[in-house]
Structures are given as C-alpha cells and as structure tokens.
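Good morning C.,

I know you're traveling, so I'll keep this short. The sequence:
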Amino acid sequence: MNILIAPDKFKDAASAIDVCIALKKGILNTFPSAKCSLLPLADGGEGTLESIAMVLGADWKYIEVLDPLFRPVSACYLYIPEKKIAIIEMARASGIELLTPKERNCLITSSYGTGILIKDAIKIGAEEIVITVGGTATNDAGIGIASALGFRFFDKNNQELPPIGENLIKIDKIDDNNVLEKIKTIKFIIATDVENPFYGNKGAAFVFARQKGADDAAIIDLNSGLFSFAKLLDKFSNINPQDIAGSGAGGGVGGGLACLFNAQIISAAEWILTLNNVSEVITENQILITGEGKVDSQTWDGKLISKLLQMADNAKVPVMIICGTLQDIDILALQNNIIYANSILNKPMTLDDALTNTNTLIEQQGILLGKLLSTLSL
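The tokens, ready to paste straight into the viewer:
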C-alpha cells in the first residue's frame, strides 16, 4: 500500500518532519510492507522553510539579525539563485517563539530583524522576495521591516520614532528618502492564510495581539495606532490597507508592506501545496494521512489542511487525520473522504506530559494506524 504522510506541525510540540518520521516508524512497526512517502507541510508559520527546501533544493543563507526585542540572534532564509527568489519566514527573526512568555509584549516588539533578512537577500541578488508571516511576535504594521530597508518614521515634532507597535499612533510623517532605488524594483509577495483587515474588531490587534502579550488596554491602543497609520499609508501610497484582504496578517505587516512596497498578498496554503505539487502526488498514493496540533473550526476555514482534504477528495483518495486535540466532530462527519480521525492522546494527561511525549504518542498512533491499514483493501 502506498501511503502519503503529509501533516502540518503540532504547534509547540513537534515539527511536521518529526510528525512524519514518528508516524512512519509506528506504521511500519505493524504494517512493514507499507510504502510511506513523507511530505511535511507548513502554513506559512514555523517550519515553512524546511517544507519548501525539500522540494526546491534552495540554498540556506544564515546571518545575524535582531530578534523582536532588538537582541542579536542567528536567522536564515532560502535563496534560489537561478530564479533570484528569496523565501523569508518572519518567524525566524521576528517570531513569538523567540521570546519567553514573560517577554511577549507587542507594544515594544519589532519586525526589524525580518527587514535585515530582506536586505541581505537583496544584496545577493534577489529580485523576488516571498515573506511568510505566521507566528510573529509583532504588531508594528511592518514599520520594523521598512526601517531596516531605509524608511524613517517621525512624530509631529519631527522626532524619529523607534519602529515598534506602540509608536504607530505617534507617526506623523513617512520618509522614504533613504530607501534604495533597487528596492522599488523588487517583487514582494506576502504569503498568509489570514484574511483579517488592518484594524477593527477583526483586525490585527483585536484578533491576534492578546496571544502576543497585549492586555485589553494595549489592544485598544494598538488598534488606534493601526487606524491612524492606515490613514497615513493611504495618503502616502494612495492605497488604503483596510481595503486589502489579509492586511492584518503578521501584526499588520500585510497592509504595511502592500502600501510601502506594493507587496502582493497570496494564500500561503495554496502556494505551499502548489510548490509541493501535492495534487499530483496524492494521486500516486492509496491513502493520505494528515493532521495538525488542533483540529477545530479554524482547520476548515480555508487553511492548509482543508485545502489538502479538497485535493484528496478530488483525487478520490481516502484520508486519515491525527491530531493533538480533536474538536468539531460534526464538521468532520461532513467530510466524505475522511475514514478515520483521532487524537494522539490515549489517556487523561497533563498538557506538560502531552508536550513532552508528543513524538512517542504520535508513534503509538502510527502503530494503531498500521494495524488498521493492514486490514484494508484500497
């Protein structure tokens, strides 16, 4: 039996590659004749570069940048010399996982480090730059990135402002006099599956800032800053970020870069699945095993897994889902090609125990899947 194992990561517990390896090991334990193909996937957040690198054979570029709190940290990106394309994952330089829970405060964090990665990519010849914006620690609307590339932001007293979230509301002037002309010719692409607007009840601050350390008062201030900055961006570029789907992605990076660099926002899931040629790969297998850390209502809302399931349905390939937390059973029942769905948790346990033993639990689930698959005629 040909089995395609194509999961997303289990956030904070196991990378997509780790999930693939553990599942394969478990399946082969009880179904040794199975032929398992591994295709670790990502949704634009952590682990995206590894998924893409496996397909494109791109070069890894490592440099020292600044983390969200302006501390030195090593980060990397992918570069495809023959196509002059750089692929940059914001989480590498500006990610929430670079900070401890106590350090997370998107009033004072910045995307500046991601800008350093972009600057390096341009230096070595990139003409197209794809930025995936999942897993960020910031709510600065991309002014950190822009500052690293030569933009300067001033208050009404003509004092230059540090590029952090709490300063958005203070910005009175955007200065692009120091931006290199070459940057204006670069094709910028923002890859995200977030469709939230720049500001408002469904905007970057109200929906995402709390998980980045903002309290109620900070969320209101950040939203006011995004509203104020949107008006300035509209005046500067003749583009209103609020009118762009996904402008709230990455703490407003989508909207900020759309206005400052004419960046295009695309679906990260569709882009990654296309890069991996998944629609064709699925047809070469008799079953698909996929999953992520939590399967809930967001899973079906145009995210990576939902698009993958649609491809499998089109190819008439049955699907098995494994996850850490399984919710929305009623929605699962409506997915015609899902023949199995289960959590890896096989008994009551604490979150710490689950996180510590995730790989073992996934392997154990693989053992069960192997037993089941060995009895199926597909």
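Safe travels,
E.
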